[in-house]
Amino acid sequence: MEKKPTVQVTFDGQRLDLPEGENLAAALLAAGIQTFRHTAKTGAPRGPFCMMGACFDCLIEIDGTVRQACMLEVQPGLQIARPSAGGGDHDPE
Question: What Gene3D superfamilies would the database entry show (predicted)?
């Protein structure tokens, strides 16, 4: 299996080298990032769960927009952050 070239991204200010074109949620998990956001009500940590866009636990913020990491690909220069205020409108707590 051919290894994909890596590109530089940042996650909450931490520089990461992730494989270009890979699923963003999977690449972040492989890089050791387990908590993508915290719930608004209890502050409980959340990370990828379903990996198919149904659960909204993998919400992250890119360029001021809250998105599902499992529905994105790694691209050079991504500026990724944990969403403020719990991570969006899909928080069941």
Answer: 2Fe-2S iron-sulphur cluster binding domain, sarcosine oxidase, alpha subunit, N-terminal domain
Is residue 82 within 8 A of residue 60, CB to CB? The reply is yes
Mean pLDDT by 10 residues, the chain (93 residues): 89 97 98 96 95 96 95 97 69 53
Residue ranges and CATH numbers for the domains of the chain are 6-81 (3.10.20.440)
Q: How far is CA 44 from CA 7, 38, 72, in A?
A: 30, 5, 23
Burial status of residue 68 (CB atoms within 10 A of its CB: 0-12, 13-18, 19 or more): buried
Can you give the pTM of this predicted structure? Answer: 0.88
